[in-house]
Amino acid sequence: MKKVVSVILVLALAVGMLAFSGCGEEKTKLHVYNWGVNIADGSDDYIDVIAEFEEAYPEIDVIYDTYESNEALYTRLAQGGVSYDVIIPSDYMIARMIREDMLLPLNFDNIPNYELVDDTFKNQSYDPDNMYSVPYTWGTVGVIYNTKYVDEADIGGWDLLWNDKYAGKIVMINNSRDAFAIAEAVLGYSLNTEDPAELEAAADLLREQTPILQSYQMDDMYNLMENEEAWIAPYYAGDAMLMMDSNPDLAFYLPEEETFNVFIDAMCIPASAEHKEEAELFINFLTSPEISGGNMDYIGYGTPVSAAKEFMDPEMANNPVAYPDSETLARGEAFVALSDDATALMDNLFNEVKAGLN
């Protein structure tokens, strides 16, 4: 699935450069905060997105940092003392940040490529008026497993994560929202329940899992699964694609009869941003079909810009892990922002569950 993408910078990019071409001026430092392993960086002959952007806009240097979860992103911004210009949270976290005045409205005059975003990804409940976000990727949460060690008869549902046959080889996702969603799906609840009794029941189910868990992980999931130190884990489809590319014995599935999360990650500008116009140029750049196509080829997630598929490896553009069919997606459920009380209860319960594992 590796593909070298040759990016031809179009006239619109060249025109945009003129506004930032002052000779001898100090470069603008554009601070970007993104999920780990969530942008093509030039490795394995893929496009280097940031290098391409800096070539297109030579007066801008991108300072790039990563986080492991929406909750980690929120905590860092809420605590203050940091200034990022572009962040890429998930749908429900965007809704929370809008509610708490943590995001700036976008000037779409600087983001003309937004017109290329598929209508399916616009007017979403997390940003109904399309004021604060531009979709970056979309995907699902399912189960990644090692076909060398896991019996095919055992796969198909979330229950694989509670199968004591694989005790010590199961790794659980280390954030409260995703972990609780899996337990809620098993119990037949909405992934957006705020019922305290249902949240307590989900926590109890997670407690039942802890005796057979190896650990809770996020980005370290890569090494554990690729090196076969762990055999089973729930994780995001795009990351699963990267792991499967490194270890062909890995496979991925979405539960056949249970709900799973379908999400959108979108580019936003925090209220504390110091370089809003440059941030909008970066967002526009990542939304161009050429860049989005080359980028998605590497990170394995779905592109919200259908025109980008023309610039992708056909194998990736048609891969059912990245692009499940409509019948499969109908079983999915998007997260919404929970109330502060429900979020606090879930986080506290999750910490108690993990303390039991330790």
UniProtKB/TrEMBL annotation:
In its UniProt entry, the species of origin is given as Candidatus Scatomorpha merdipullorum
Q: GO biological process: what's one of them? A: polyamine transport
Q: Where is the signal peptide?
A: 1-21
Entry keyword annotation includes Protein biosynthesis: no
Which GO terms fall under molecular function for this chain's record? polyamine binding
Q: What is its main location?
A: periplasm
The protein's name is Spermidine/putrescine ABC transporter substrate-binding protein
Q: Where is this chain's protein located in or outside the cell?
A: Periplasm
TM region(s), chain numbering: none
Protein's UniProt keywords contain GTP-binding = no
Report one GO cellular component: periplasmic space
List the Pfam families: SBP_bac_8
The record's section on Gene3D superfamilies has:
Periplasmic binding protein-like II
**InterPro entries per record:** SBP (IPR006059), Sperm_putr-bd (IPR001188)
Q: Where does spermidine bind?
A: 92
Q: Which terms are listed as keywords in the entry? A: Periplasm, Signal, Transport
Q: Which domain of life is it from?
A: Bacteria
